[in-house]
Amino acid sequence: MSRSTLKILAMVFMLLDHMWATVIPGNQWMTNVGRMAFPIFAFQIAEGYIHTSDFVKYAKRLLVFALLSEIPFNLFHGSSLFYPFHQNVMFTLWLGLLAIKTIDRFKQERTAKNLIIAVGGTAGAALAATIGFTDYGGMGVFTVVVFYLFRDFPYAWLAQL
């Protein structure tokens, strides 16, 4: 499947999940299908990292989108502009991106210092997602990391699945 096809598929799945949560409650099948969107987006973040020519721009765009989308997300979940008890999935994806950046640093230069940075960065991103109440929490960050780590392995799709 192409990257564009995967994006469209993930957006349709996400739309179903959001419709179930807002407009058409009681149709559990919609959220079951909708939950397939996150692994696709996590995969796309890992692939986007590999193919980006400017990590800083990529990370900034993701963070800006996370911040902007937090306003309607908060209005829906907490009926206010500020709702600290649940953050949108874009923060999870952004933290996953930061985690794979630290891992890539270790892959480029295998030193003890970079290993500590990679492990600490990944654990820190997962902890930040958990403490920050992001969608999918630390496990969401680890999902992005798994897609990145197993990318070049034979039968990688089995590990990623």
Explain this structure to me?
This protein is mostly helical and 161 residues long. The protein has helices spanning 3-22, 28-34, 37-51, 55-78, 89-108, 112-131, 137-149, 156-160. Helix 3 packs parallel to helix 5. The longest helix has 24 residues, at 55-78. The two termini are 16 Å apart. The mean pLDDT is 91.
Q: Give the count of helical stretches.
A: 8
Mean pLDDT over the full residue set: 91
Structural class: mainly alpha
Oligomer: single chain
Distance between the termini: 16 Å
How big is the Rg? 16 Å
| Strands, total number | 0
Strand percent estimate: under 5%
- Detail the poorly predicted runs: none
Q: Give the overall form.
A: globular
Order of helices and strands: HHHHHHHH
Give the helix proportion (percent range): over 70%
Q: Mind describing the biggest β-sheet? A: none
Task: Please describe the topology of this protein.
Layout: H1 3-22, H2 28-34, H3 37-51, H4 55-78, H5 89-108, H6 112-131, H7 137-149, H8 156-160
Helix pairs in contact: 1-2, 1-3, 3-5, 3-7, 4-5, 5-6, 5-7, 6-7
